[in-house]
What we know:
Distance between the termini: 12 Å
Mean pLDDT: 95
Structural class: alpha+beta
Shape: globular
Radius of gyration: 18 Å
Largest sheet: 18 strands, mixed
Helix content: 10-25%
Order of helices and strands: EEHEEEHEEEEHEEHHEEEHEEEE
Number of strands: 18
Amino acid sequence: xxxxxxxxxxxxxxxxxxxxxxxxxxxxxxxxxxxxxxxxxxxxxxxxxxxxxxxxxxxxxxxxxxxxxxxxxxxxxxxxxxxxxxxxxxxxxxxxxxxxxxxxxxxxxxxxxxxxxxxxxxxxxxxxxxxxxxxxxxxxxxxxxxxxxxxxxxxxxxxxxxxxxxxxxxxxxxxxxxxxxxxxxxxxxxxxxxxxxxxxxxxxxxxxxxxxxxxxxxxxxxxxxxxxxxxxxxxxxxxxxxxxxxxxxxxxxxxxxxxxxxxxxx
Length: 266
């Protein structure tokens, strides 16, 4: 483990503490064991905790854990880890950070207070709405998709319908729809689309702000609008704002972050 043994909590996709999505960040100087990372994530009890440690060829490895499982990609935890590297001077202000992850190379840049993450775009497959889906989610979707990652994606009529979504989380967890993105056009002119995300399959009932969901949402909304640049509003209780740009088979996801506290691991 790191000689300093410091863990941070960062609120991502926001400029105010106690908004956005909180993530744990642990910067280490050697490879931790999966058991140790899982225990720390369980102790933090946040939707994700990111662990950063040295990789090959100057890259930094990054791992993401929920309180229950490792996940291949997490946007707000990547943003939070990048924010800490820049804020502490472990990465220079103009430095390009390259993380090696289970989802491939994640390239991070910073311009003023905005951090941009370059993630792989996701694929979408249209699927039939089913009685099981309606039963576990309470949604009668206008369209339903499976993504190439682990999400289902449902389009609903408008933001009012989106805000009323109240799935049966226990049934969701035990179904094929345990990771769900729900989206609708935003009625607010400064935003293009609104979303909510539920992931009881990995121990997250409702994710406050979800960067990785944009890997599917950018190509989805491009198919609807022909545009490639968007501002997303996640309408969870804590809320969050994301700038999103589709770049061929990649997606740029930009946000800001605030450090809430740092603590020493004993």
